[in-house]
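PT: before anyone asks, these are the final sequences, not the draft ones from last week. 642 residues across everything. Please model them as a single complex and drop the result in this thread when it's through.
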Amino acid sequence: MSANYLVAQDLHKSFNEHKAVNGVSFTIRKREIFGLLGPNGAGKTTTIRMLSTVLEPDQGDVIIGGYSIKREAEEVRNLIGVCPQELALYVELGALDNLLFFGRMAGMSSQEAREQALAHLKLVGLEERAKGRIDKFSGGMKRRVNLAVALMGHPELLFLDEPTVGIDPQSRNNIYETIEGLRDKGMTILYTTHYMEEADRLCDRVAIMDGGQIIAMDTPHELKAQIGSPDRVTLEDVFLKQTGRSLRD
Amino acid sequence: MTKALQIALLQVRIYLQDRGDLGFSLLLPVVTFALMYFVFGGQTQFHATAHIVNEDPGGIYSEAFIEQLDALKELDIDLLSLDKADGKLERADLLMFVVIPEGFSDGLASGEPVELLFKQRGNGGQEQQIVAALVRSVADDISLGLQVQEQVIAALVDTDTTINQIETTVERLLADEQESPTVAVTEEAIGSSPDPVNQFLAGIITMYVLFAIILSARMLVEERHLGTLERLLTTRLSVGQLFAGKYIAGISRGFIQTVILMVLSYAVFQIFTPLSFMSSLLVALVYASAASALGLIIASVARTPDQATWMGVFFTMAMVMISGTFFPIEEGSVMEIISRFSVNTYANDAFRTLINEGGSLGDIGFEIGVLAGVIVVGLLLSRYLFKVMPGGR
Ligand SMILES: Nc1ncnc2c1ncn2[C@@H]1O[C@H](COP(=O)(O)OP(=O)(O)OP(=O)(O)O)[C@@H](O)[C@H]1O
Ligand SMILES: [Mg+2]
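LR: through. Structure below.
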C-alpha cells in the first residue's frame, strides 16, 4: 500500500452560520482515484475549494504532497490541477488558446505549453477543433476542454468536480478513458460525481458525504458487501441507503 | 512579469475577439471627434453663402457685381430665381437674399440711381448681416468706380482723351487699388486659444481616459463570473501578477482610445505642436494608469459586472462633475476646493497647460506627481480590498 498523498484533517467551513463542511477528514493515497459522493449541497465542492487553496478552512488543515494548504499554499498550487464543476474557460477564445494561456499560468514556456496543449487536446479528442471558439462548442466539447485545461502542467494531484455532468455517453466515455490513462501514468485523482456506476467503475475508494460530513468511506466493493452480495447490489443502493430518499435542496 | 503580460495580452485578445465591443470603442473617439468637428467647424475664418436673385441676367454690371462677390473668399454665391428664393425665405430655409433688379445695368450705364433689395426674415441673423455688409461694400466699390469715372469724364470732356481711354485707366486704377489697397487689412492668428476646440479638448481627453476606470473595473468581476478567476487562483499565478496584468490591460484600452482622439485632433485642428503632442501623450498615459488603478479598486469590491459598470459610471460622472471639466471654476470659490478632490482636475490642468498655454512638462510636475500618487494608492488599496473581500486572497 503506497503512502498517503493527501491528508485532510477535520475540515470545517461555514457560510453565514450554515455549516457547509462540518468536520471532514480523509486521506488519498498516491495513484489512487478517490471518489467523493453525496447528494446536492452535501459539501463536495466546498471541500474541493478548500483542498485547492481557493477557500480558507475555518478549522482544520490539509497536507498535500507534504505541504500545508494553510502555510504553503504556493507549493500546493504547484502540485494540483483543478477541473471545476462550472466551466471556467475564456469562451471568446479558441480551445488551444485557453490551454496555452493556462499552461503559461502554470509556469510553462510557450514551447512547452504548445506541446502539452496539443497532446491534451488529442487526449480529449479535440485536436481537430483546436482553433474553434469555446462558445461555438457543444456541452460535451466544453467539458472536455475544461478537463484538458486542468491537465496543463502535469499536476500530481487532480481535482475533478463532476466532470461528466450533462454530456452524452460518447463524451463521458472519452473522459473515463482519459482519467484511467492518467491514473496509469501515476496521477492521483479526487473525483466527485452523482453517477454511481461511474464511481463504481473508476474509483478505488469512495467517501459518501451528506450534510457536510462523511458518513461512509471504503472501496466500492466493501461498501456494497456491507448491504448484500456485491454482485447484486449497486453503489446506488448503498448511496440511497446511506443518505436516505428525501430531497436535499 | 511575463505572467502579468500574458494576462494583459489575454485581455486584449478577448477585447479584439468581440467585434462589437472593438468597433464601438474604436468608433467612439472617431464619432466624438466628428461631432467636435461639426460643432466647432474646421475653420476659424468667417464663411457664408450669399443668396442672389439676378433679375438683370446678362447685364454687364449685374454680372460684374456677382463676379466680384464670388471673388470674395468669405462668400459662396448661390444664384436662384425669385420664386424659389421667396419660397425658401417663407420656409426659413434661408434668412436673407439679395435681389439685383431688372434694368440694373442699363440704369447704371445711363447714370441713374439703382437699388439693390435685401429681403430677410427678421434681422436676417448674425451671419447674414455680415453677408449683407459684404454685399454692400462690393456695391459701394462699383458705385464709387462709376462716380469717379463720370467725374473724370466730365473734367476731361474738353481734352483729346477718348472716353475709352478714361474708362480703361479708371478701371485699372481701381483694380490696382483692390490688388494692393492703400489701407490694407491683414489677419494674423496668434496661437489658437480662443478656439472652442481647445477649451473642450482637454475635458474630452480626460473623460475618455476615465473610461478606462469602467473597463478595468469590469475585468476582475467578469472573470469571477466566468469562473476563470477561481481557476487562476489555483495556478502558480500570484495575485500581484494578476493585478499587474489587469492594470496593464486597463491602461492600454483607455490609452488607445485617447490616442485616436488626440491624433485626429492634431491632424485636423492642428492644436498640438510635436512637442506638446508628445508631452500630452505622456500625460494621457500617466492618467490612464491612474484611472486603471482606480478601476481596480472598484473591481476588487464589485460582485457582478453590472455593479462594476455602474460604480465605474458613477465614479466617472462624479469626477467629471466636480472637476470643472466642461465649465470654468472660479478661482478661490468653494467649487475650486471641491474640484481638488477629483483626479480629473489634475489631468485637466496638465492638458490645459500643455495645449492652451504652450507649457512644457516642467510646468506640470505637480499634476504628474498627484496622478502618480493616485496610481500608488489605487494599486495598494485595491490589492488590500481584494484580500479582505469574500472570495479574494
Ligand atoms: N459561496 C457560498 N456562499 C454561501 N453558501 C454556500 C456557498 N458555497 C456553498 N454554499 C452552501 O454550502 C452547501 C454545500 O455546497 P457545495 O457546493 O459544497 O455542495 P455540493 O456537494 O458540491 O453540491 P452539488 O452536488 O449540488 O454540487 C450548500 O448548502 C450551499 O448552498
Ligand atoms: Mg458541487
